Amino acid sequence: MAVSHSTSSAPPSAETVNDFYLNCPTGLVEYFFADGVFRWSDDLYRIYGYERGDVVPSMDMALAHIEPADRAAVLAFWDRVSESGGPSSVYVSIRDRKDRQHKLMYSADFIYEGGEPVGVWGVVVDLTQSIHTDRHQLATEAVAASARNRAIIEQAKGILMGRTGATADEAYELISQQSQALNKKVYAIAQEIVDRAARRSPGQQNPRSEQD
Q1: Which regions of the chain carry the CATH code 3.30.450.20?
Q2: How is the beta sheet containing 101-113 ordered, strand by strand?
Q3: Which CATH code is given to the segment(s) 136-199?
Q4: Which of 53, 117, 129, 147 is 20 to 30 Å from 39 at the Cα level?
Q5: The whole model's pTM is what?
Q6: Which H helix or E strand runs over 59?
Q7: pLDDT of the chain along its 212 residues, tens only?
């Protein structure tokens, strides 16, 4: 498993990072210790060659796609992150459902609630088609962008939960449905919900309006 590190002293520009982040397929995963269930974003399913509902995400399922030479490193990465948190990253090669090879970067950290770790969230960046030479630095910046996006998604989920009585999973499903219907990224829909909430005064808020 080859791991490349940046040798450039100058960080990439914001425009370059944004271009990298938007053009490299990027998926998200959440795992909560309480239920032991992996939750994948639609984009992560597609990186592996699936659509939501085709398979049930699990460690065994993911390992079956990882090249044999990288499996031990992935297991060590998972043990490290699930026990000690991160941020931590690893580069791996996988074979998707159609046996096409992808070069991926996994990066993960704890999910915190009330200051206590309750699970692990991760971002998976598909570097296969990247034309950039400084992949490590760009991927690191992309992970930071994903962390910011996840914070927005969590904030939007909280708004919907507070206004509709939905559970966390139901709130995410509402956001995901809007994402698919409008052909926008999940974090873009979440940002719109947060922005609308910020513009409204408490007396003007409609409990169901954020779904429209």
Answers
A1: 22-131
A2: 37-40, 26-32, 116-126, 101-113, 88-95
A3: 1.10.10.10
A4: 129
A5: 0.61
A6: helix 59-65
A7: 433 333 333 433 444 444 444 567 888 899 999 999 999 999 999 999 999 999 999 999 999 999 999 999 999 999 999 999 888 888 999 999 999 999 998 989 999 888 899 999 998 988 887 644 455 566 666 666 666 777 788 888 888 888 888 888 888 888 888 888 888 888 888 889 988 888 874 554 444 445 55
